[in-house]
Amino acid sequence: MFHTLYAALPIMNEPDVLLTIQTVLNQTIPPKGLFVCVNQPEDYWQDVMLRSIAEQNQQTLQQLSAFALTSHTAIHIIDKASPGRGWTSDNHGVGWARKVLMDTIAQQANANDLIVSLDADTIYPPSYFESVHSLFINNPKLSALSNPYYHCLTDDLVLNKAVLRYEIYMRVYFLNLCRIGSPYAFTALGSAMAVKVDAYRRIGGISPKKSGEDFYFLQQLAKTGIVENRNAITVYPATRLSNRVFFGTGPALIKGVQDCWDSYPIYAPKLWDEISQLYAVFPQLQTTTLMDTTICETMQAFAKTIFTDDLLAKWRKTAKTTAQFVKFCHEKFDALRVLQYLKWRTSLETPCDKHNITENAAVHHIMLPTDFNVDDLSHLTILREALYHNSGSALRQGSQTQ
After folding, report:
1. Which DSSP helix (H) or strand (E) runs through 21?
2. Alpha-carbon distance 42 to 103, whole Å?
3. DSSP structure string for 43-111
4. Alpha carbon distance 213, 101 (integer Å)
5. What is the Cα–Cα distance from 81 to 146, expressed in whole angstroms?
6. How far apart are CA 216 and CA 190, in angstroms?
7. Cα–Cα distance between 212 and 338 in angstroms, integer?
8. Can you tell me the distance from the alpha carbon of 230 to that of 386, in angstroms, rounded to the nearest whole number?
9. In this structure, are strands 193-196 and 142-146 parallel, antiparallel, or unpaired?
């Protein structure tokens, strides 16, 4: 079964984008087609503060057009930046750019072809596309890939501290998802995703959200198929401040350089254990109520708002097996519900990053310096390395195809 590769690259205000494109075309297995969407809101042309971005996008369009004439790989340019072509109203952002790109590819590709999602500020090793291709060839049941990542450090020590802290947050989160056997054990980075075309079509494509489109995209793919999180090749996103989206790496770093981590706390292991307790009673809910289970009071209160009596009664009639009933439960208590529960539970306490990091390190068998300090760049580097190693070897329930 042959998988043809297509690449999707959204661009806004990227003066060095040709360097990224060259790394894509120099892959050991280059894409059959590279689809590029240069995009911005239409009103950037009238905004004195943002017009420079619109002008940079015009230079990029000219560079791309000239480059495409000499490229051996077909480069398809989608212009959502020139006057009269930009995004209007609320329909704008990287989510819309990814949707336009992936929809365009899906309309002309075959069902078993692959869409590789890229970002202009990410470094892709020469064998990245080959590794993605091999992964899907060797695992025919895969729907998508959430690829390993490793943020590049800079010359700015404050920014480095922020990105290390943010990456630690993401890796601890991922490892706990793996630990409790969540079917949503993935890290959503738009620059590190790949999807099979038939899986993309099956979920109706990517939802064009202003932020977090990659999170909801992978969540939906996990509900309808298998999302792999392991690959031999790592990609390297850049570290830079950005307010183009409401949440994600850029906004997190803006808060991080101000040492504000309220939105990205390190969640205590006991909160993950409470979610694990709920997972364990899913089979019981086919014949009993939440009140009759052994889950803690806080989880019981939260779960009752989701698993209503009417909903459980409906599933009991619909589900032909216990496995199908449990699947219904996981689809309802999905990745978003997990995050909502963690945020709600954390709001009931006074979280302490150092304490929660220390507890998580113990749970995941990571040795920290005896004088570990969350403000020490070298200590954060040590922890990031250990978490990166553990993330690469993590095996989550259901991650291997049969």
Report:
1. helix 17-25
2. 21
3. GGGG-TTTHHHHHHHHHHHHHHHHHHTT-SSEEEEEEESSTTTSB-TT--SHHHHHHHHHHHHHHHS-T
4. 14
5. 29
6. 11
7. 15
8. 16
9. antiparallel
Which tokens sit at 93?
């952002």
Q: How many residues does the chain have?
A: 402
Neighbours of 301 (CB within 10 A): 12
SS3 191: helix
Residuewise pLDDT in 10s, the chain (402 residues): 568 999 999 999 999 999 999 999 999 999 999 999 999 999 999 999 999 999 999 999 999 999 999 999 999 999 999 999 999 877 667 889 999 999 999 999 999 999 999 999 899 999 999 999 999 999 999 999 999 999 999 898 988 998 999 999 999 999 999 999 999 999 999 999 999 999 999 999 998 876 678 999 999 999 999 999 999 999 999 876 555 544 456 666 666 566 666 778 999 999 999 999 999 999 999 999 998 898 999 999 999 999 999 999 999 999 999 999 999 999 999 999 999 999 999 999 887 888 999 999 999 999 999 899 988 999 999 999 999 999 876 543 333 332
d(CA 188, CA 18): 25
Pairwise CA distance, residues 158 & 166, whole Å:
13
Beta strands 33-39 and 5-11 are: parallel
Residue 291, SS3?
Answer: helix
What region, left, alpha or beta, does residue 199 occupy, with left being phi > 0 and alpha being psi -120 to 50 degrees? alpha
Residue 114: in which H helix or E strand, if any?
strand 114-117
Using a 10 angstrom Cβ sphere, with 0-12 exposed, 13-18 middle and 19 or more buried, the burial of residue 27 is buried
Residue 331 tokens read as 């689809």
Whole-angstrom distance, CA of residue 398 vs CA of residue 392: 16
Q: Which two tokens stand for residue 301?
A: 């209160």
Q: 297: part of which helix (H) or strand (E)?
A: helix 297-304
Separation of alpha carbons 25 and 27, rounded Å? 6
CA distance readout (Å), 195 to 15, 174, 250, 350: 28, 20, 24, 40
Distance between CA atoms of residues 237 and 240, nearest Å: 9
